[in-house]
């Protein structure tokens, strides 16, 4: 299926690592131009080089999205380099374990800032460009938005708000033909996930206990499977889909546990 994404400029926050990297790869494979926004590091640079070595066009903006004006800067720099923005994937985030007992009101606000603030800000600044082309937005949320996880109030609140904003923005942007959807992962092996696993006394055993409960195939979701859903939602092939929360999780959140 041709997703008709050739030459489309797609901004992907955190697009050099984990799920974001898989989305950048999938966009590049469709002939689109991923604009990757990441803090600078060797891994980030080498991911962009890897995409270019494969003959893809991509832009890398080494920006920390948490700074006060950095989302504005990210959008302006994208427009300077590419002249347009066709789609936005809000993806950057981190499960930072700020809970009720293991956190403070100040840390809660910081977690919201880390995980939610830039979803709004990137969308706010990219909006005039998206309006010009009837663009699309995908928010990457998390199963914690609907299941909770414990000891991670800030992250869970941010992830829940991303689902609410997906619906809110889908409504607000109807007149412009801009579609807004969310993809909800549960268990995907990424640097973030590895860091989280490593906090358990026996990470291997923990991983086995998690995968044993994933209904479809008793396995983790591949980052590429999150990416496939995301590029489909960005494409005109999903032209009548908006305000939806797509759980790409092997049935982890919704299927009956009795099936096990
Ligand atoms: P990851 O491996 O840590 O990748 C996230 C990327 O975003 C990293 O490159 C990170 O850069 C970047 N990033 C984070 N904050 C940033 C900021 N302020 N400015 C610029 N870049 C920033 O994480 P992932 O597992 O792929 O997660 C991606 C998304 O999926 C997140 O929204 C996460 O909540 C969601 N998710 C993941 C899972 C899972 O199982 N992996 C499950 C549910 C939801 P640094 O390395 O510099 O921090």
Notes on the structure:
The protein is α/β, with parallel strands linked by helices and 260 residues long. It has a single domain (9-186, 221-245), classed as Rossmann fold (3-Layer(aba) Sandwich). It contains nine helices and seven strands, in the order βαβαβαβαβααβαααβ. Strands 3-2-1-4-5-6-7 form a seven-stranded parallel sheet, with helices on both faces. α1 (18-29) links the parallel β1 (9-13) and β2 (33-38). The chain is globular, with a radius of gyration of 18 Å. The two termini are 35 Å apart. The model has no long low-confidence stretch (mean pLDDT 97). The structure holds NADP nicotinamide-adenine-dinucleotide phosphate. The site of NADP nicotinamide-adenine-dinucleotide phosphate has 27 residues, from α1, β2 and α7.
Topology of this protein?
Layout: E1 9-13, H1 18-29, E2 33-38, H2 42-53, E3 59-62, H3 70-82, E4 87-90, H4 105-133, E5 136-140, H5 144-147, H6 153-172, E6 179-185, H7 191-197, H8 203-211, H9 223-234, E7 245-248
Parallel strand pairs: 1-2, 1-4, 2-3, 4-5, 5-6, 6-7
Helix pairs in contact: 1-9, 3-4, 4-6
The chain binds NADP nicotinamide-adenine-dinucleotide phosphate.
NADP nicotinamide-adenine-dinucleotide phosphate binds next to helix 1, strand 2 and helix 7.
How far is the N terminus from the C terminus? Answer: 35 Å
- SS strand fraction: 5-15%
Oligomer: single chain
How does CATH name the architecture?
A: 3-Layer(aba) Sandwich
Q: Would you tell me the structural class of the helices and strands?
A: alpha/beta
In CATH, the topology is named Rossmann fold
Number of domains: 1
CATH class: Alpha Beta
The number of distinct helices, counting runs of at least 4 residues, comes to 9
The parts where pLDDT drops under 50 for at least 5 residues are none
Strand order of the largest sheet: 3-2-1-4-5-6-7
Q: Helicity level, as a percent range?
A: 40-55%
Number of strands: 7
- The value of Rg in angstroms is 18 Å
- Name the CATH homologous superfamily: NAD(P)-binding Rossmann-like Domain
